[in-house]
TrEMBL record:
Residues 194-294 form the Fe2OG dioxygenase domain. It comes from Ficus carica (Common fig). It comes from the Eukaryota. The keyword Iron applies. The keyword Lipid metabolism does not apply. It catalyses: salicylate + NADH + O2 + H(+) = 2,3-dihydroxybenzoate + NAD(+) + H2O. This is Fe2OG dioxygenase domain-containing protein. Keywords: Dioxygenase, Iron, Metal-binding, Oxidoreductase, Vitamin C. GO terms for molecular function: dioxygenase activity; L-ascorbic acid binding; metal ion binding.
Length: 344
């Protein structure tokens, strides 16, 4: 019976109408006809030659993208295509496993470091999202790998290879972004304590009435920087000047976005931008975001070199643990969690 299913995946294929607990109030629907789906969306930055002849040009492009868009795509990112393809294939296979097999990872407790769940936070939210997700902590890998699923059999190996490669890309981006702010290349990396890395395997089933619900409603990411791998089905949208813009998939690229912690460290020069995922009637969609973050004990604050009499610190210092707790307590609300950490 549909109503008793723990996961959306196992109910979505049976329904011709969106069940009432997924229906958004009229004032909070995706208005899909008003979304811009063509023309340039977000900048595409070629990382070829980042450590060679194109260094200063790439730094400039990254700085502009972080400042104006908060979102960009990267190509020639150095992550081998086989590692990426294996990750995507694995994600697809995972969500096709029999229900009983997937449910071994199920939990509705957001504090668990490995868990399969549905929507965003089933304990607190009023309206559910059209999404199932497997969330994994993945740095340091050896602390978490023994919690990860073992089905499909290559799960741990494929995910470990993927996480390690993405971490390498993130570390290169953090150096470049530090430089783009006029800071020493190791500034941001040094401000993150022991560092943290989480990821999600997001599964958005086809939806009979995509106008009534969200895969993920508009939100900013609470972490430092996000690297998103998506399959070839559109769904991600970014808010720019009040208009939602579709980010259409480009093969062999990653989507990178600035999270709340980067906005703080940059003292508001770089923006953590609202984005959302919408669903469609025809095709399942899979995305695999990597959320790179400070470790819980790290003290986050605006970089001293970016503070002056003209540009005083916008935020107080806080630990990432404090921020993360407040973020989860308030749910995936559209209001930016950052406002709670502004200096008064
Ligand atoms: C997220 C997110 C977008 C997507 O998981 O935070 O924004 O396209 N995902 O799945
Ligand atoms: Ni997000």
């Amino acid at each position: 019976m549909a109503a008793t299913k723990l996961l959306l995946t196992d109910l979505a294929s049976d329904v011709k109408f969106v069940p009432s607990n997924y229906i958004r109030p009229v004032s909070d629907r995706p208005n899909l006809s008003e979304v811009r789906t063509s023309g340039t969306s977000i900048p595409l930055i070629d990382l070829q030659g980042l450590h060679g002849p194109n260094h200063s040009e790439i730094i400039k492009q990254l700085g502009q993208a972080c400042q104006h868009d908060g979102f960009f795509q990267v190509k020639n990112h150095g992550i081998p295509v086989e590692i990426v393809n294996k990750m995507m294939r694995l994600a697809r296979e995972f969500f096709r496993l029999p229900e009983s097999e997937r449910l071994k990872s199920y939990s509705d407790d957001p504090s668990k470091t490995t868990r399969l769940s549905t929507s965003f936070n089933v304990k607190t939210e009023k309206v559910a999202n059209w999404r199932d997700f497997l969330r994994l902590y993945c740095y340091p890998i050896e602390d978490y790998v023994n919690e990860w699923p073992t089905n499909p059999p290559s799960f741990r190996e494929d995910v470990a290879n993927y996480c390690t490669s993405v971490r390498g890309l993130v570390l290169r981006l953090l150096e470049a972004i530090s430089e783009s702010l006029g800071l020493k290349a190791d500034y941001i990396g040094s401000a993150l304590g022991k560092h943290g890395q989480h990821m999600a395997l997001n599964y958005y089933p086809p939806c009979p009435q995509p106008d009534l619900t969200y895969g993920l409603p508009g939100h900013t990411d609470p972490n430092l920087i996000t690297v998103l791998l998506q399959d070839d089905v559109p769904g991600l949208q970014v808010l720019r000047n009040g208009t939602w813009i579709a980010v259409n998939p480009v093969p062999n690229t990653f989507i990178v976005n600035i999270g709340d912690q980067m906005q703080v460290i940059s003292n508001d020069r770089y923006k953590s931008v609202l984005h959302r995922a919408v669903v469609n009637c025809n095709k399942e969609r899979i995305s695999v975001p990597t959320f790179y973050c400070p470790s819980p004990d790290a003290v986050v604050e605006p970089a001293k070199d970016l503070i002056s009499d003209d540009e005083p610190a916008v935020y107080r210092s806080f630990t990432y643990a404090e921020f993360y707790r407040k973020f989860w307590d308030r749910g995936l609300a559209t209001e930016c969690c950052l406002d709670m950490f502004k200096k008064t």
